[in-house]
Amino acid sequence: MSLASLRRLLPDGFTLALLAAVGLATVLPCRGVAALWLDRVTDAAIMLLFFLHGAKLSREAVLRGVTHWRLHLAVFASTFVLFPLLGWLLGPLTRSLLTPELALGMLYVCTLPSTVQSSIAFTSIAGGNVPAAVVSASLSSLIGIVLTPLLVGLLLATQGGHGPGAAGVWEIVRLLLLPFAVGHLLRPWIGGWVDRHRPLLGLTDRGTILLVVYAAFGEAVVDGLWRATAPLALVATLGVGALLLALALACTATVGRLLGFARADRITLVFCGSKKSLASGVPMAKILFASQAGGLGALLLPLMIFHQLQLMVCAVLARRYARRPAPSTAGRPP
Description:
single chain; mainly alpha; disordered C terminus; 17 helices
């Protein structure tokens, strides 16, 4: 393996920032009045984040999705049907190896929408259908605002838990759906500015995640997170996350061939259908599990681990796709 390939397996800058936020929360957690103010700041950051995402999504991109409906439906099914089914099937293994909070966090990972930026980036590197990836990932992010809370409630109900009640639904509407809708309605007036300032959206994404991670882990540390989470449970979380990702990659690759998709479309299905969004998952977890016993910190650990796993594995996989020769006839397997 080359030095460049080894570098791709190392944590990226944002993952290091996440680890720094966890470390800061461990040694200097927010308490008392400061914690209350931090909670309000994170709520405002979440609203701004989803407002900007709404303004970024063009209606033309949504309309273009109609023409490639089979591929988008396959990505949708992988994200919101295959993953929850895998999470449910792996439930007995997960609950036997992990703490209750980590097991719930792994189940939560399975309900999340696909990523946007990294799905498109890896599809591009691998030589996939980039326009279709843009539409699929964007629609997944949009649909996830509504569908993820429903899936969380459904999966928790099958395991004797309970999903978000009326208060949780209102928080989803107030902090996520309403800002997103307002941003999208204002796109004709502010869309050009948002498109010219894409780095601002990336900064808002990362800043919001870091704020929520710091606040969640700070609260969990105060409640005894690291005393209740054994190192072996973290190793087991890594193993379960790797198994989940491997199954998702294998299923999406197989389904793409069975459906007769062209090579570029199969690549899009693999990278958009196997990813889970940290940018959407962290803010939604803060709302959906606000009253979670034991704090939010442990519940976010599986998502953070899965995030790094998917970046490392998909970076290697995208390069392997890129090195394969393209087929001479569209739709014929390479």
